[in-house]
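Thread: "does anyone have the structure for this chain?"

Original post by V.I.:
We have the sequence but no experimental structure in hand. Need at least a predicted one for the grant figures.
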Amino acid sequence: MRFKHCIFDIDGTLVDTERTGTLSLISTVRDLLGREMEYEEAYSYFGIESVRVGPMLGCSDAERFLEEWEARFVSMRHLMVPFAGILDVVRDLRKAGCHTGIITSRSHAEMESDPDLETILADIEIAVCSCDAARPKPYPDPVWKYMEIFESGTGEKVAPSECIYIGDMRNDFLCAREAGISFALADWHGRGLQGLPVELSFTDSAGLRSILGV
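Reply from O.Q.:
Generated one for you, tokens below.
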């Protein structure tokens, strides 16, 4: 095992939610803001706290925007599926004695109400959601919060060199870099490195296993 702590993003990393999140955002923008949004523009908001997206797009009623987007997201949930082999990777990490975590821009309600995550969460020790850290990704605070929770629960210190964060977006990379931990880019759809100076990336579960040594 190369790392003692393997921490995952959810959307676009553990679960393929790209089409669900992107198409539901396009639909919300069309109905509430009256404009058409291209797929790639909508994709650029993937990984940002959902509560912040409405104001970023100029919506004056952020609460209504979030409610409408969440309703559309749920209606398109049938498009979501865990990435091939990821369930076995997380399970094997736990069997090998690696500590597992999640750092996500989802709220606890969004995470816990998602039936697609039930099996994955069974092998996750610590989940840090959007409201748990003082500042969200791209700040390092969510990583620090993971370390704080682990240390308070076990009495063991966490060294940055023992940790890796696996994510699919720029904010994930920046969060890991600012916290001083390793990062691996999940490139399941073959989009490339997105201009990020990443040293570790993978396009399938075999590539991820090679990075993690499991």
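V.I.: this helps a lot. The first helix runs from residue 18 to 33.
O.Q.: and The mean pLDDT is 94.
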